[in-house]
Amino acid sequence: MKKYQIMSCLVALLLPLAFTACSESDDTVDEFADWQERNEAYFSGIYEQARTNADGTWKLIRNYSYEDTIPIDYDGYIAVQVLKEGTGSGCPMFSDSVLVNYRGRLIPSVSYVDGYVFDQSYEGEYNPATAKPVTMYVGGVVDGFSTALQHMHIGDRWRVYIPYQLGYGASGNDVIPAYSALIFDIELVAYFRAGTTPVPWYVAGKR
Description:
By secondary structure, this protein is of the alpha+beta class. It contains five helices and seven strands, in the order H-H-H-E-E-E-E-E-H-E-E-H.
């Protein structure tokens, strides 16, 4: 009888440890812990880096849909780090279609130190010689992405930081958790006015 009592006590003591070990090894438990606070703090830091622009490569761009006369907080802007400056002269409009190379990811987390890649138009390291850009409608993407496109010139390559308010908001979607700030590497290859037919990427990319 004492033997069974001892075994029962051991089980009772070890059971909580088993659950703890499980939760510590299961990334899905802690991956998005305090996710809203982490994303707000992350973008706030990026915003300050862009605002001070110590190395001259950063810019802040007000969300295109906000009237200039309305005061806004830091989360009404996207932060942009210019990776490469293009030579194009004009910018796409909201009603245009664009040809772009892009990669979208979340902020760094437990399992993804560089941020989880949730969407991309190319595999592996970016190579402009082999990348195959995709066509999209400027008005068909989230506000932060659309805002960036409307300020880019052909040949520009930007790293764009978007607060969750200008991304997928407090609801997220099937792939992106709620309250997620977004990080996009975007290269504008070409753009086309409304009513025109976009040319294939292998033609537009040679312009």
